[in-house]
Specification:
The protein is globular and about 55 Å long. The longest helix has 29 residues. The chain contains 14 helices and no strands. It has one domain. Helix 3 packs across helix 4 and helix 3 runs antiparallel to helix 10. The protein is mainly α.
Amino acid sequence: MIKRHRRFILSLLVGVALLFGVSRFINLATTLERFEDYPWPDLWLVMLFSLGYYLLKALRWHYFLGVIDIRLPLHKSVLVYLAGQWFAFTPAGEFVRAYLLTAYGYSFGRGSAAVAVQVIFDFLSLALLGSISVFRYHELAGVVLPFTGFFILAVLAFAYGPLIVHRGHAAEELAMNTLHARWARFYDRCRRLLAPRCLAMGTALGLIAVVDGSLILFQVSQGYQIQVDVAQSAYVFSLSQLLGGLSMIPHGLGAIEASSIVLFQYAGVDTANAASAVILFRLATVGFSLLLGGLSLLALRTPLGRCEPGQTGRAIMNSS
């Protein structure tokens, strides 16, 4: 536990150091002036895209829960997903969603499989969109395409490797004999969530969400009259988010900002304009997600999110 908190604090410090590093290469006074020049009446469209981004992820979450026999009404599973955003800056904050599911009688291990696979699909969707965009902006193709190929192979090996090496039920018996029973069940649920149909559905919903995220960045850029198109926005969004995720810093703090500004600069965008757009983009996504998370967490304590009579008992019978 102490080591985990140390890693968390170290990650935040690294993120803050990156932010300070970026500030040395941009004119903060000019950036703030440009920030104030944004046409604020147009912000509603940015927030609408941002809401759609998180709702798409919540719908994918609801679909995954159903695959592993977690039966919740749509509005409750959406509230659980959004509530998890409130804890995004805490150590292993993603897994708070699995903990919230225990209030409905489902084990932490069962919910953890959905959380883990959500993260896999987030990386996969970003890598795929980044790979598509580098065919037009091919400067980083030598890095992005091999990473995407390796990641896809790793996912397929994780999901289907044991079935290829040990056919049929022998794979399940091997897992039960070589792993702790809980880990074996966790792995089995992850495999179910990576089955062909789920793989196609999860990737489709993930790509739609990533495109939506790119539209948020595009809309913010248009407000600052930055001359980029949707393809360039997808290029900047997917690669910066991917780098932020790989940094292992909560919400990619510092890593996403730094990489976004560098990618904008490479596209010929003025540094101050790029920094202002990135700041507003992060406020409209990360800041808005914290607001959604707090409101959803409160809603879970109301009749809207409480268990229905008999629901907990049925869930416990099916939660092992």
